[in-house]
Amino acid sequence: MPRTAAPLLTSPIPRVADSDRRRTSASVVLRSVLEHGPVARSTIARLTGLSPASVTDYCARFSAWGLIRESAVPRRSKGVGRPHLPVDLDDTRFVVGGVHVAVPCTTVALLDLRGRVVARSELRHEGTEPARVLARAADALVALPAGVPGVRVLGVGFAAGGWVDRDSGTVVEHPLLGWREVPVRELLGARTGLPVHVDGHARALVNAERLFGRVRGSGSVLHLFAGNMVDAAFTTHDEVHHGPRSQAGTIAHLPVPGGTEPCDCGRVGCLQVELSERTLCRRAREAGVGDGVNPMRVVGAAAAGDPVAARLLRERSRRVGGALGLLLDVLNPERVVVTEIGVMHREDCLAALREEVGADRAATVSPISFPDSVPAVAGGSVALDVLYRDPLAVSPEAT
Known about the structure:
This protein is α/β, with parallel strands linked by helices. The protein is 40% helix and 20% strand. The strands form four sheets. It has a five-stranded mixed β-sheet with strand order 5-4-3-6-10. Strand 7 and strand 8 (170-174) form a beta hairpin.
């Protein structure tokens, strides 16, 4: 549920506070349409605590911009009174672009205003020099709208693992790509001509869950991402914690008891190297399960009945559960979301993780809501989060 806006004040208030109030009010109105549409304006006023006049004003703006539309069929409240035209999100006119840079590839995508992927493309890396990777991504992204005629791109979201500073629009450090202090916002913005918003992929995905996923409305959510990179994100009262220079959620070098994998930091048994998909694939090769570096091949082998592949996936999920248990002890969230290849695709892996977490907390844990589109949703949701937090600034007029 959106947070209730503060009641209107009769005494003069500073312009900054007035601006914040307008931004919050616009946000809760658009979020209410997203979550409850088709919905009457009177219902939005009741849900948000805003005056009917304010709700009508914001709905008129959003309708003029093409973000929402009136339902074609009037509704009559309990069969009496004047019929009203509910409003709903208009998901046909606008999209956002998404760029997600992973270790083996970059995914570019277009998402509609409900967070659904309408177009995507995957670019295998031809080297990881940042300017080249981002130039290829920008060019591929600019080409995508040709396949979705009639839509307009409001902005671009970028997500990646490692240390990503949202405020400066910079990838501060991505050790597996060898990136340091890469000005992503500047490079993508110059190439696309669009507003660019940047964040870490663990935070991006918890925002996607907060807006569109199965844990929407939860008071607090912990998200653990375990791919080649291992990151975490935590949201409470609809706010994602970033910390100074967006460094919150950096858990790659937490020690794993009994860990044996050497880490580039010089220690042994760091969380990221123990749980990395690279480590999973190497162990699979050593066990005779294929000879590739794609973890989905291990999932495929397990689905085809290979007991070794299934065991390797369960073991990894169990280790993820062990790391998750430590975070739960510290943060005690209401809900937990896990992005991990075994948990997303196999019930036995989810069961193994939940068993490791413990029976008292197992029911709070669920896989990511977008198992078949994680990279695409991660990138696009960075831009969608900005839209729903401040629709007045990311309106079609503003862009």
